[in-house]
Design a protein that fits this description.
Largest sheet: 8 strands, mixed
Low-confidence stretches: none
Shape: globular
Mean pLDDT: 91
Length: 339
């Protein structure tokens, strides 16, 4: 499918319904103007100007999907019974994300990353300090049972599933196994966005790791075409995948597709928009969101990779986690010459 065909069929991304299971969090961005040095201690006093709540981690993947398909996305994860839990649910609902399957855990903190930034008339805004509120221990048996029950209820209602693992305790082995088993039972596409512990995701449809995380898992550096092809072959075989999409930063992406015989078929594409990169935060969430939507919409894996690359090339122009939409994708696709 050439660029014109992708463009003609891009509206199909609005059709699939996607379920995101994983570690949900928010980024609280606090901004202020420098006023003076405190008399109490040698610290800066900021005059508060604005607070922004941004959806991060699995929340960012869900937000990217909702922005593209108009809110056909559900969330399965945990949050604390605290102030930021209410903020998270409100932010997810505002983004059009179904939170009926989220579970409150009274023993945990809602994962929140607070970034405090200051500016003055002579300088740009700069981050001063970051405060993390999170519980990293695995969810307990009671919460795990509720998550598993919600997965079983939700999976039949969706076309595809994303497992978004930021190693904050929601995706236990039992939760992962249930998600994979239910996806197979209902013939759903399931894609894992993972950084480590890849063995736990054996049997998913696809994974979307970056190159450094792939290297850590495989135990060797990918430094030429030979090791790249070897890496793809090992990922496909060891994890029993249909697809392995490795993101490679400024080197673009490479997709490996399982074949009935012989080594996996590999397809490489360059990074789009290398000249306007501002912040790569959350780009991986955007890739897995667009890639999964495209697979579920009936695009080939190669076209799904192109769409994922395209979406990432848009969001990296913004500060922090960001989303894109169909209109931006269409405009960007028309301007891309690398395809």
């Amino acid at each position: 499918m050439e660029k014109s065909e992708i463009l003609k069929n891009l509206d199909k991304l609005k059709e699939p319904k996607i379920l995101v299971i994983g570690d949900f969090a928010i980024d609280e961005m606090v901004f202020g103007q420098t006023e003076r040095i405190s008399r109490e201690a040698p610290v800066l006093i900021l005059q508060h100007s604005e607070t922004k709540i941004i959806l991060g981690t699995a929340s960012n993947a869900a937000n990217n999907i909702s922005s593209i398909n108009g809110g056909k996305v559900g969330a399965v994860g945990v949050l604390g019974n605290d102030y930021y839990g209410k903020v998270l649910i409100e932010a997810l609902n505002k983004a059009g994300i179904n939170t009926d399957y989220m579970v409150v855990d009274n023993t945990r903190k809602t994962t929140t990353k607070t970034r405090i930034s200051g500016s003055c008339s002579q300088s740009i805004t700069q981050q001063i300090v970051r405060i993390d509120r999170q519980t990293k221990t695995p969810i307990n048996a009671e919460i795990e049972a509720k998550i598993i029950q919600n997965i079983k209820q939700a999976v039949p209602k969706y076309d595809g599933i994303i497992l978004s693992d930021y190693h904050l305790g929601c995706l236990t082995e039992n939760v992962i196994k249930t998600a994979i088993d239910e996806a197979k039972r209902h013939n759903k596409i399931i894609v894992a966005d993972i950084q480590k512990d890849m063995e736990k995701y054996r049997g998913v449809t696809a994974i979307t790791p970056n190159q450094p995380d792939s290297e850590k898992f495989l135990g060797y550096f990918i430094n030429d075409e030979k090791t790249l092809e070897k890496a793809g072959e090992e990922l496909i075989k060891r994890l029993e995948l249909k697809y392995a999409l490795i993101t490679r930063g400024e080197k673009g992406m490479v997709l490996f597709e399982k074949k009935s015989e012989g080594n996996p078929l590999s397809t490489k594409i360059p990074a789009f928009n290398k000249k306007e990169v501002f912040d790569v935060t959350g780009a991986g969430d955007t890739v897995v969101a667009a890639f999964t939507l495209a697979l579920c919409a009936g695009f080939s894996a190669k076209c799904a990779m192109i769409i994922g690359n395209l979406a990432a090339s848009i969001v990296i122009r913004q500060f922090g986690c960001h989303t894109t939409n169909l209109d931006e994708l269409k405009t960007e696709l028309n301007n891309i010459k690398e395809i």
